[in-house]
Backbone:
């Protein structure tokens, strides 16, 4: 008998019919003898609707505490509906808000962090044979104020509960059947991964493969909670996200290819190359609250150097203005920028034990005549910046080069 935490997202509880289907599914697990804690999101679209109302009532600027007071109601509706549907099927069930469980958080309204979870009440209910349905996305601070965990926060509620209860698995049910080697809309041969490590998932997620809230993956890694991403209404094993197990012999070198089009590139040329120059350039950028991703400084010629970095595209204009001011102040020759770039990354823990991964990547891009503008590497990731119009070609070429393509199906 296992203890499983199951989290169902907004589309999975988006209508009464779907809530009925979720109840059927939970019932089946229960009949197998497993103890089940269910975490649900609000019905799809509901959180947006509530935020919109709040904006209307406040000239677009709702008081953070009051916003949490209101948006937390979306989940309060779905926990009650699911508990009713379960009870209606003869499955004893009880619903709790975050406050009732006591999911204690800090007081950072709209983006609170979980500090502690009381597991007593839940354990008592499980022992009494009840399914426990908990509202995702919300908690309560020391003063008793209702807080929420940031958009997509129900994933984190699920993982945090699984950690607190030492559950055997945290299952995240959603509208995709797992984590893929890359976006199937870009590469038709993309495959569902059976397994991926926390570290790899974090790299994939932060690079734009948005299946899970990033914080929930960090949390799961920290407390070693096995996480499984599954389709709510299709059969299948989904993708298991777990610790790196070095035992596994058939570990692929690369697990997936992530990409994003959200960045822009800025270059400052002819910078007098003196100690502290990187700080002089990037200090004002971070001072303007702009996050920098990749950074490249060229080898200097005649005591001047070039410096290139990337920022989120939304911050491009602001960063360009800051950089122009800096250029004047330090006597650099010129500043330029480019928003037509994309970042492509190959991710895999197998890189640690294999040489030649980077050159294989560069070879695949060279064969397609794709120019690499910037490169950065970490222990389990290699990223390149290329011209945006080659993005899809690059992802497809790399997917093939690293043998990630699914075998062609019959008749295709
Ligand atoms: N309902 C919240 C949101 O839409 C939390 C969640 O769904 O995870 O962001
Ligand atoms: Mg979600």
Residues:
């Amino acid at each position: 008998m296992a203890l499983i935490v199951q989290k169902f997202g907004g589309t999975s509880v988006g209508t009464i019919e779907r809530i009925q289907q979720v109840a059927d599914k939970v019932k089946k697990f229960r009949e197998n003898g497993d103890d089940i804690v269910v975490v649900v999101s609000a019905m799809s679209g509901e959180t947006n609707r509530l935020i919109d109302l709040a904006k209307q009532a406040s000239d677009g600027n709702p008081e953070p505490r009051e916003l949490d007071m209101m948006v937390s109601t979306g989940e309060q509706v779905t926990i009650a509906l699911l508990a009713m549907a379960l009870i209606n099927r003869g499955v004893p069930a009880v619903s709790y808000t975050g406050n009732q469980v006591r999911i204690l958080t800090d007081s950072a309204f709209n983006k609170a962090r979980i500090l502690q979870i009381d597991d007593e009440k839940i354990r008592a209910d499980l022992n009494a044979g009840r399914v426990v349905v908990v509202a995702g996305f919300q908690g309560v601070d020391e003063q008793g104020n209702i807080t929420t965990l940031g958009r997509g926060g129900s994933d984190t509620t699920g993982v945090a509960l699984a950690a607190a209860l030492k559950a055997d698995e945290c299952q995240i049910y959603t509208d995709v059947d797992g984590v893929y080697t890359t976006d199937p809309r870009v590469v038709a041969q993309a495959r569902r991964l059976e397994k991926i490590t926390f570290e790899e998932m974090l790299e994939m997620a932060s690079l734009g493969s948005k299946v899970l809230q990033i914080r929930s993956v960090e949390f799961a890694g920290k407390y070693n909670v096995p996480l499984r991403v599954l389709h709510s209404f299709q059969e299948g094993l989904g993708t298991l996200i777990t610790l790196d197990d070095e035992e596994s012999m058939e570990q692929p070198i690369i697990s997936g290819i992530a990409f994003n089009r959200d960045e822009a590139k800025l270059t400052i040329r002819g910078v007098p190359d003196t100690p502290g120059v990187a700080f002089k350039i990037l200090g004002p950028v971070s001072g303007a609250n702009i996050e920098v991703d990749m950074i490249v400084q060229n080898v200097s010629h005649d005591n001047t150097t070039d410096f290139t970095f990337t920022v989120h595209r939304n911050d491009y204009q602001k960063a360009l203005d800051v950089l122009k001011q800096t250029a004047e102040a330090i006597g650099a020759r010129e500043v330029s920028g480019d928003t037509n770039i994309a970042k492509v990354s190959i991710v895999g823990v197998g890189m640690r034990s294999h040489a030649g991964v980077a050159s294989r990547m560069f070879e695949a891009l060279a064969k397609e005549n794709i120019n690499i503008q910037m490169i950065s590497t970490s222990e389990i990731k290699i990223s390149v910046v290329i011209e945006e119009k080659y993005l899809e070609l690059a992802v497809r070429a790399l997917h093939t080069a690293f043998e990630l393509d699914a075998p062609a199906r019959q008749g295709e």
User: Anything to note?
Assistant: The two ends are 43 Å apart (CA to CA). The mean pLDDT is 94.
